[in-house]
C-alpha cells in the first residue's frame, strides 16, 4: 500500500552530443513536442513531431510503434515543454524519462545541424 506513494524517478537530462550520438546509432527515438508550425520552421533531422498539446497514450503508442528497444527522448525549444512531456507520459504509465536538456537551442549552440 505504501509503495503507491514512492517518488517518481527524476528526468534524465541528455546533452546535445548524447542525443546526436543516439540518433546516429539509432538507439533513441527523438520526439519533438513543439507545435507543427515550430517543427516545420526548423527541427532536428530524424525527430518525430508529437505536439505536447496532442500528447496522449494513444498518440505516443502510434509514434513509437516499431521503435523496438530505442530510448524515447522528448525535445522542445528550450527544455520546459519536453520536461512536461516526460511528466505527461508518466501520468499515463509510459516508461519515458529522458529529454534533451536545453532543447533545440542547446542543439544549435553545440553547432549541430537542423532541417529548415
Summarize the structure in words.
The chain has helices spanning 16-24, 36-41, 57-64, 80-91, 103-109, and strands at 12-14, 28-32, 48-49, 71-75, 98-100. It is globular. The protein is α/β, with parallel strands linked by helices. Helix content is 36%, strand content 16%. The termini are far apart. The chain has 5 helices and 5 strands; from the N terminus they run E-H-E-H-E-H-E-H-E-H. It has a single domain (8-109), classed as Oxidized Rhodanese, domain 1 (3-Layer(aba) Sandwich), CATH 3.40.250.10. It has a 5-stranded parallel sheet with strand order 1-5-4-2-3. Residues 24-116 form the Rhodanese domain. This is Rhodanese domain protein. GO terms for molecular function: thiosulfate-cyanide sulfurtransferase activity.
Q: Which properties best describe this structure?
A:
Oxidized Rhodanese, domain 1, Rhodanese-like_dom, five-stranded parallel sheet, alpha/beta, Rhodanese-like_dom_sf, thiosulfate-cyanide sulfurtransferase activity, 116 residues, Rhodanese domain protein, 5 helices
Amino acid at each position: 500500500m505504501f509503495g503507491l506513494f514512492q517518488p517518481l524517478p527524476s528526468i534524465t537530462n541528455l546533452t546535445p552530443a548524447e542525443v546526436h550520438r543516439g540518433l546516429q546509432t539509432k538507439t533513441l527515438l527523438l520526439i519533438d513536442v513543439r507545435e507543427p508550425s515550430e517543427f516545420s520552421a526548423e527541427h532536428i533531422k530524424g525527430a518525430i513531431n508529437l505536439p505536447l498539446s496532442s500528447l496522449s497514450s494513444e498518440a505516443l503508442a502510434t509514434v513509437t510503434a516499431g521503435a523496438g528497444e530505442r530510448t524515447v527522448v522528448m525535445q522542445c525549444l528550450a527544455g520546459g515543454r519536453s520536461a512536461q512531456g516526460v511528466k505527461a507520459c508518466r501520468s499515463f504509465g509510459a516508461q519515458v524519462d529522458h529529454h534533451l536538456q536545453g532543447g533545440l537551442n542547446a542543439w544549435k549552440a553545440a553547432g549541430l545541424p537542423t532541417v529548415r
